[in-house]
Specification:
By secondary structure, this protein is of the alpha/beta class. It has one domain: Rhodanese-like domain (Oxidized Rhodanese, domain 1). It is 29% helix and 20% strand. It is built from four helices and eight strands, in the order βαβαβββαβαββ. The chain has a five-stranded parallel β-sheet. A three-stranded antiparallel β-sheet has the order 3-7-8. It is globular, with a radius of gyration of 14 Å.
């Protein structure tokens, strides 16, 4: 991981999403995103990641993934490609869940989308 990567806590990312002051980009793969995602996160999978395709505008970009490893890799790709990135979510969606924050999940048996919160996780 990069020594100078800027990391954010789940609480700081939640606040940015609620206030509309950040854009959260999830770099996991489509199946992972479909199974569980942070409300408001946009999908840009690392397997096809192109920093030049990220949304541009007035809000800074924060990257996230499952644990923080892929978002750190995407962060590095953005810096090498000249894309402006604010930070990444330290610990990814795992840290988000551990902080008790809400996650959209798809029930594997019915395909129904529902909101969960807290560190518990349905497998």
């Amino acid at each position: 991981m990069l020594a100078d990567i800027r990391e954010e806590t789940p609480e700081a990312v939640r606040e940015g999403l609620e206030n509309g002051t950040i854009v959260l980009i999830d770099v996991r793969e489509p199946g992972e995103y479909a199974a569980a995602r942070i409300p408001g996160a946009l999908l840009f999978p690392l397997s096809t990641f192109d920093p030049s395709k990220l949304p541009v505008g007035g809000r800074p970009i924060v990257l996230c993934c499952g644990s923080g490893k892929r978002s750190a890799a995407a962060y590095d790709m953005c810096r090498r490609g000249g894309a402006s990135i604010r930070s990444h979510l330290a610990g990814g969606i795992q840290a988000w869940r551990a902080a008790g924050l809400p996650v959209w999940e798809t029930a594997p048996d019915t395909g129904a989308l529902h909101m969960t919160a807290g560190p518990e996780r349905r497998e």
